[in-house]
Amino acid sequence: MDASGARTKLVVNLVLAGNRLALAEGLVLGEKAGLDPANLLKVLQDGASGSKTMVDKGPKMLAADYATQSLISNVLKDSRLMLEQGQKFGAPLLVTGLWSQLIQAAYEKGYGEKDVTVFIEILRDM
Predict the structure, then answer these.
(1) Mean pLDDT, the chain, whole residue set
(2) Closest CA to 57 of 49, 46, 66
(3) Which whole-number Å values give the CA distances from 105 to 9, 22, 60, 73, in the listed order?
(4) How many other CB atoms sit within 10 Å of the CB of residue 81?
(5) What is the pLDDT of residues 31-88, one digit of tens each?
(6) Rounded to whole angstroms, how far apart are CA atoms 49 and 52?
């Protein structure tokens, strides 16, 4: 993959990370507020904020199904590369910095070989 392709892949993963983070925060808030998680996810999927990530990862988050699709250890590597590219090109990556910290926390908690969706457990524990 050439440099342009690799950078494009990082940008795609960055946007996916932001979507996953927003979804997890919304689901955790809904859970803690006493909303039915399955109904909430359906509303989110069908609403203006809906995305393929919500369809693919939302049910995994609710079911605590962390069977590997995207390893936390690989996502951690990618998040570090994203931050490096942000520094290199002078682009602020505020959400990516937070994402990287959450993924690092999941890795430190022993979730390195789990699917990326396991990071929701860090939010649930906070």
Answers:
(1) 95
(2) 66
(3) 24, 17, 19, 11
(4) 16
(5) 999 999 999 999 999 999 999 999 999 999 999 999 988 899 999 999 999 999 999 9
(6) 10
Q: What pLDDT does 93 receive?
A: 97
Strand partners, 115: 71
The first and second tokens of residue 68, run together, are 């590997």
Contact indicator for 110, 50 with CB cutoff of 8 Å? no
Q: What is the pLDDT of residue 1?
A: 73
Distance CA 36, CA 101 (A): 28
Which of these, 73, 58, 82, lies nearest to 113 by C-alpha position? Answer: 73
Q: Give the separation between CA 111 and CA 118, rounded to whole angstroms.
A: 7
Structure tokens at 91: 């682009």
Residue where the block lists tokens 């996502």: 75
Question: Which amino acid would we find at residue 42?
Answer: K
DSSP 112: T
